[in-house]
Structures are given as structure tokens and as C-alpha cells.
Specification:
The protein contains 19 helices and 14 strands. With about 575 residues, it is α+β, with helices and mostly antiparallel strands. About 0% of the residues have low confidence.
């Protein structure tokens, strides 16, 4: 056993990765809708392993990985954060901001009442409000207080302790609220979600085994018979009858390929390659002829699936129906939307789905058609598999410079710190990327990895450095902190729900619950809500309020340190 302990102490980075591996393994276990998650699992396992003692991983390493994490939070959330700053979204913006302020007030009030120190108060906020980034921003603020080394270390240990104890209910509480509020308000959430989907563009009810075909594009091949409704009629006539939801992409006449044009007539024996929405294909066979699968080995027919990022100012904030009308049939002909993704969450592709800057739209069609429409929508990411390290490096430089800005609160000098500085620079660069497509970007997959890995490394180091004192603090204050965590989690949500409903007039049940989950930055609650609605209708309000809450909750770290006596 001593050999194991010595190995863990002598190879601290081995121990760090061991904590991450075990933490993510433990974090995968699910109880109902609750999963601990990899980050919380890593922190808890790091504290447990830290009981071996003797760990001291450089604080600079910890700060670096936190800066990387928080920069990517800003970069990925920047477009949606700024998209929410408009009049039509004002009530959702106010709801999210108000929730974060209520959380701050409850944390500070309860902490002063119970005599908690600055570190424990910050940990209570990080866990009770489920915002892991507070651990980092509060830790940086503690470093600026000028305390003795041991006192600062104890305070930062208490941040980890507070988070570890309160995070579990911080995640469970919003799930309970999403389940309890519909019962209290006598809402049928599934029925309300169906109504909202119909209002947004007419989704039909699905039964087991069916799927939502409006987001699926297909290509089918038909051979024209003498009985065809469209015999001797033009391609334009056929496409118009199907509201341009179908496009003839290729015609084979007497074994020869013909590029279709609107005035080309359809003749007996012609083979038509038709692309469009699955929902539009139901009556095509009876109107055209036989659907076939054998059409010759020499046919060269390919289409492209292309991701395009929305950046056109004229289209931002408009619905899909409005966009189609504005662009016109000539520009949209032959192009179909397969999916829309906002902040890693997929939206329903419905007529009244509103599009925001930075949304990733997947289009399907012929290359020439996609080239035409891409210029109208925004830009194709220039670096799908690479990252512009000039932009990345300069963004981090700007973040560290912003972090040097300081101000006084309650007689305490508070510096923004590299964490908040990199958050601000990430927000700005993520936003500018949507305005200036030619500016180099950061691969989304790489950005997500850095964000997740940066936070995992950061909390792992926090837990290992905390060591034995953390376990002693848990034994001493565990029950008290757990009960305080319940209050911090529940009070802001209860108060904010009624404020949203009666003052801000957010009456639609699906939107009300989406706002509540987003304003609490509660991904588990959002997952639970999606299960109840069985469609993506809560996604727009959740992503909007989640982006706002993420930013402001992160800012509260140094504010809490400054406000606590």
C-alpha cells in the first residue's frame, strides 16, 4: 500500500489523470434523471484521493487550464449571448438576469447569517447554483486578497468543499421543479408542447416507431408512365404543385442525362431524380409513375450536405418562413434544411422557428444550389478540422490583459482576473466571428474539448490540493452546507417562476419551464423537460437564457468574495 501512496505522491500528474478517469466513470451513473457528471465526479474523487496527502500541483497550471476553459465558454456562447440582447427577447433576458441576481442575494444573505467565510460562500454558490466556473473566478479573487498563504489555501479548500456538498441537490432541485410545477399549475406539458409546435409551424403527433420527417431530406427515383398526371407538363408545374418541397435534380431520357430546367416537358419513359422533404413524397408515386431502384450503372448523381453559420444581419431574428419569402424561390430552389443547431442543442425545423446569429444550419442539395444560398445566409466554416491559432493566441492575450483591470467593492480591491478576462475576450471573439466570417475561427469540436478538459483538469487540481483539510471540513459542516444548498437552489427558482409568470407574462408552460431551466444553467432539468415535451420546443428559450445565466453567474465569483465580510 505504501508503494501505491508513494507513486501517487511522486507522480502528481499521473494522480490527476487517475482522478479525472475515475471521476468521469462515477459521473456516468444515473439515478432517475440525475447524473453526477464528470466535472463534479472528478472533484469528489480528487478530494478522496487527496487524502493520501503531499500533493501540490502548481497554481499556475491550474490557472492556465481554467483560463482555457472559460475562454471557450465565452467563444461558444458569444453569438447566442449577443443574439439575446434585443427587444423581442427582453423578457427572457430579464428573467435570466433576475434569476442570477436572486441567487447572488440568497447566497450572500445565508452565508452572512450562518457566519460562513468567503471561500465557503463561494462554494455554496458554485454548487447550489450549479455553476462550476465560480470555483475558478472566486479562487482568483481570493489570491488577490493578500492573505497569508495558509489562510488563502484554507479559503480555497472551502470553495471546493462547499461545491462538493451542494452540487448534487443543485442538480436535482431543478429537475424536481420541472416535474412539480406542471402538477401545481395543472399543465399537460406534452399537450402544450404539441400546441406550441403547431403554432411554430405544424408538427404532427408521433407514435412509437415514427420519426420527425420534416428534418429529413431524401432522394427518390421515378419512371414516368402513360397514366402520369404530369405527362407532357413542365418541371415547374410539378414542383409548384408540391409547394417547392420537391425538386427534380436530374432527368434521364433514352439513357441520356438531362439537366432539368423549369420549362422542360416530362415524357413517357423519363426517369426523374426527385429530392425533397420526406413529408412531400406521400402522393408522388400515384402522380408520376413507378418508383424504381435500378436506373443504370453509369449515372453520376451526387448531392452535398453542408454546414453554414448564419451571419447575415438581415436574416437574424427572422423565422424560416420569413427567410424563405425574403430570399424568394429562385434562391431557395433545390435547397433543403436538414437540421438547425444552437449551442449544441438541435432546434425543430418549423416555419416559425426563429434563427439567431451563430446558428449552425445543415443544408442539403446540389453543390451549385448550396453555393448560391450560402452567400445569402452566412458562411461555411473555413476550418472544419483546424483552428486558427493566431485568433486563439491573441484572444488569450487580450483576456489576460483585461484580467488586470481592478476596482473596489466594500473596501476590497477586486481584480477581474485572467478567468473573467478570458471570458470577456472569448465572448467578443465568438461574436466577431459571426460578423466577419473571413476571420479565422476555432474548430467547434476542439473548442468543446478544451472547454470540458480545461474544467476537468482545473477541478481535479483543486481537489488534490485541498487534500485532508477538505475531508475534515466536510465532516464538520456537511449537514449545514447541504441544507443551505437546498435553500440556495430552491428559493431563487420558486420566486423567479412567479415573477416570470405574473410580472414578465411568460405564460406559455413550455417556454416558462425552458426559461426556468436555462436561467438556472441546469442541463439535467432541460433533459428532463425534453422528455416531457417529446419535441424540441423548449430549446430556443433554454439556450437563450442559459447563455445569459452562464455569463453572469461566472461573474459572481469575485463579487461574492468582495461582499462577504
Amino acid at each position: 500500500m505504501n508503494i501505491i501512496y508513494d507513486t501517487l505522491r511522486n507522480l502528481p500528474y499521473l494522480t490527476l489523470f487517475l482522478a479525472i478517469a475515475i471521476g468521469y466513470f462515477v459521473g456516468k451513473f444515473k439515478v432517475g434523471k440525475f447524473t453526477l457528471g464528470g466535472v463534479a465526479g472528478t472533484l469528489i474523487m480528487a478530494v478522496v484521493i487527496g487524502q493520501v496527502g503531499g500533493f501540490e500541483i502548481s497554481g499556475e497550471v491550474k490557472s492556465l487550464f481554467f483560463a482555457l476553459f472559460i475562454f471557450m465558454v465565452g467563444y461558444l456562447g458569444g453569438p447566442q449571448f449577443f443574439a439575446s440582447l434585443k427587444l423581442s427577447s427582453l423578457k427572457f433576458l430579464l428573467a435570466a438576469f433576475s434569476m442570477t441576481v436572486l441567487g447572488l442575494l440568497v447566497v450572500v444573505g445565508l452565508s452572512i447569517w450562518m457566519g460562513l467565510d468567503k471561500g465557503m460562500a463561494a462554494g455554496l454558490a458554485a454548487g447550489g447554483l450549479t455553476q462550476s466556473a465560480i470555483i475558478g473566478t472566486a479562487g482568483e479573487a481570493i489570491d488577490k486578497l493578500g492573505l497569508a498563504t495558509e489562510a488563502a489555501k484554507t479559503m480555497k479548500t472551502n470553495v471546493a468543499v462547499g461545491y462538493s456538498i451542494t452540487y448534487i441537490f443543485g442538480s436535482i432541485g431543478p429537475i424536481l421543479m420541472v416535474s412539480f410545477i406542471p402538477i401545481m399549475m395543472k399543465w399537460d406539458i406534452r399537450a402544450e408542447a404539441k400546441k406550441l409546435a403547431a403554432k411554430l409551424g405544424g408538427a404532427k403527433e408521433m407514435v412509437e416507431g415514427e420519426f420527425d420527417p420534416i428534418k429529413r431530406v431524401d432522394t427518390r427515383v421515378f419512371k414516368i408512365l402513360k397514366s402520369s398526371k404530369y405527362l407532357n407538363q413542365t418541371i415547374q408545374s410539378f414542383e409548384s404543385d408540391f409547394n417547392s418541397n420537391l425538386t427534380v435534380e436530374l432527368i434521364i431520357t433514352d439513357g441520356k442525362n438531362t439537366t432539368p430546367n423549369p420549362n422542360l416537358e416530362i415524357n413517357v419513359g423519363d426517369v426523374l431524380f426527385v429530392t425533397g422533404l420526406v413529408t412531400a413524397f406521400s402522393n408522388v408515386s400515384s402522380a408520376l409513375g413507378d418508383e424504381i431502384s435500378e436506373f443504370g450503372a453509369n449515372i453520376d448523381f451526387t448531392e452535398e450536405e453542408r454546414r453554414v453559420i448564419l451571419s447575415n444581419k438581415k436574416l437574424q431574428g427572422k423565422t424560416l418562413l420569413e427567410i424563405r419569402k425574403n430570399l424568394g424561390l429562385t434562391k431557395t430552389h433545390g435547397v433543403y434544411i436538414k437540421s438547425i443547431v444552437r449551442m449544441s442543442h438541435e432546434l425543430s425545423v418549423l416555419d416559425n422557428t426563429e434563427i439567431h446569429a451563430g446558428d449552425e444550419i445543415t443544408l442539403v442539395g446540389k453543390t451549385k444550389d448550396l453555393d448560391r444560398i450560402e452567400k445569402e445566409i452566412g458562411y461555411k466554416p473555413t476550418s472544419i478540422h483546424s483552428t486558427d491559432f493566431i485568433v486563439f493566441g491573441l484572444g488569450m492575450v487580450v483576456g489576460y490583459l483585461i484580467g488586470e483591470i481592478s476596482f473596489d467593492i466594500n473596501g476590497t480591491t477586486v481584480a477581474l482576473g485572467s478567468g473573467l478576462g478570458c471570458l470577456v475576450s472569448g465572448l467578443i471573439i465568438g461574436f466577431l466571428r459571426t460578423k466577419h466570417p473571413k476571420m479565422g475561427g476555432i474548430n467547434v469540436g476542439a473548442a468543446s474539448f478544451i472547454q470540458t478538459f480545461g474544467l476537468a483538469v482545473f477541478v481535479g487540481i483543486v481537489g488534490l490540493n485541498a487534500g485532508a483539510p477538505a475531508f475534515q471540513a466536510i465532516l464538520k459542516s456537511g449537514i449545514t452546507l447541504f441544507l443551505l444548498g437546498i435553500l440556495v437552489t430552491m428559493i431563487p427558482m420558486i420566486v423567479q417562476f412567479f415573477m416570470n409568470f405574473y410580472l414578465l407574462k411568460i405564460k406559455n408552460p413550455v417556454e416558462a419551464l425552458g426559461v426556468l431551466a436555462g436561467s438556472k444553467s441546469a442541463n439535467p432539468a432541460f433533459s428532463s423537460l425534453l422528455d416531457k415535451t417529446e419535441n424540441a420546443t423548449p430549446t430556443p428559450t433554454f439556450t437563450m437564457t442559459y447563455a445569459v445565466a452562464n455569463i453572469f453567474l461566472t461573474l459572481w465569483g469575485p463579487i461574492i468574495i468582495a461582499l462577504m465580510p
